[in-house]
What we know:
- The protein is of the alpha+beta class.
- It contains 14 helices and 17 strands.
- Strand 1 (127-132) and strand 2 form a beta hairpin.
Amino acid sequence: xxxxxxxxxxxxxxxxxxxxxxxxxxxxxxxxxxxxxxxxxxxxxxxxxxxxxxxxxxxxxxxxxxxxxxxxxxxxxxxxxxxxxxxxxxxxxxxxxxxxxxxxxxxxxxxxxxxxxxxxxxxxxxxxxxxxxxxxxxxxxxxxxxxxxxxxxxxxxxxxxxxxxxxxxxxxxxxxxxxxxxxxxxxxxxxxxxxxxxxxxxxxxxxxxxxxxxxxxxxxxxxxxxxxxxxxxxxxxxxxxxxxxxxxxxxxxxxxxxxxxxxxxxxxxxxxxxxxxxxxxxxxxxxxxxxxxxxxxxxxxxxxxxxxxxxxxxxxxxxxxxxxxxxxxxxxxxxxxxxxxxxxxxxxxxxxxxxxxxxxxxxxxxxxxxxxxxxxxxxxxxxxxxxxxxxxxxxxxxxxxxxxxxxxxxxxxxxxxxxxxxxxxxxxxxxxxxxxxxxxxxxxxxxxxxxxxxxxxxxxxxxxxxxxxxxxxxxxxxxxxxxxxxxxxxxxxxxxxxxxxxxxxxxxxxxxxxxxxxxxxxxxxxxxxxxxxxxxxxxxxxxxxxxxxxxxxxxxxxxxxxxxxxxxxxxxxxxxxxxxxxxxxxxxxxxxxxxxxxx
Length: 599
């Protein structure tokens, strides 16, 4: 693994921030560029194909224009009324009469030749031949270049008799037959059509020929290494920049039905596009090296990549500078902490920034000041602590002395036969012992019940009307441990305020559940009205983490004892402890303690 967590842990905070920033920026950029490159492959191919098709469509328009000019001449010869009238008249003459022409016939011949010259003035120069069945012919080229009667011997000539209406025969590229053009224009293309009279009987033929180099010149004008060819339906090459290719078969031939595709040819990939010529079965085929076809698009991607790279480099330099400036106070604070760790408490960071680091620095300096102050206070306190411990030991002598004296009095009273007084002194002794025994933070519930029983006994001796104390406690509840003097303040409230120091009953009921230790103290005293109850109600939500104080009551029911009990139990058992006070006027009061088990 190239990156180990241990190495990262050993790096300084500054380098961690720099490293994390670079990772969080560089990795998304690399991933985005990779995804972009992957997702744009098809888009680049489609764009290259689209560009190639547009270029080929433009070439097809030029080629079609040349072929349309040839077809225009054929159509004109066939449909021109004046020209057709002369040609039909000439076709009806016998071969013998053609040699002896009068002036009118000479004028007609001149008109035919003039018409041929006129219709070939538009567009590229074409060789036009009008050949009648009786051997009469008209041409716009000298017969010394080519004898028009040789057309009867051409292989394709018989096809003309099988045509109907305005159908034409397009003759593939063949060696030029015109002697004066063979050197400059080695190949020619032709279109031929039969001429019919009103009865659809063929009386002649019109043949228009154009030299192949007129088309190959269009191919040569294309930029780059694009290779274009014109082929027929059988895949035979009709026109090409390289005349050696004319007459050869295009390798894919008729199988190339897709308009565009990528093929492997001549040790590299080529983007192939083809376009059909609208009025015959010929097609234009374009070959462009695929790398060249997508070079412009790839160059844009490379420029974007370089721009991102340089932007990232500049950003990294700026980021390094900013992080260095930002973390400089933190590095200084770290050095101060190292000095403090070494025992030097006089050093201070003294960073005056207003940001979080500055506030932390000021708090740290303040903490060092407080530590120095507390060290001095501790030194001063240690001496006084020894004196206080001695005073405490001295103070404990008096309660123990009183406890021993009470026991002596109890024994003497008991010997004199005053058992009730002896019992009262015994209960008081127990309470006194529990008070001075500071070693016990918590006691069993059994001990707490015995203690409050003695307390009720003492209270009954000091008032005229007795209080009945009834307990209902499960064995498991007796075994629970609670802080000392939890029940006494509550029972004291019940006797003094609830029963108003009159006779009555106080019930103590306790049990345990799966998660609670429940204690209920209930009296049948005066009770409280709703307003007074609301002021005393303690019902703390265990999740709010807040402590609610009990308010004083005008009825005389003291909240100080309850609040003391509540605070001690919260400190012992946490916010899960809950206290409830239920009361109704004339029906007594019930205090319920819900102590969580397991603490």
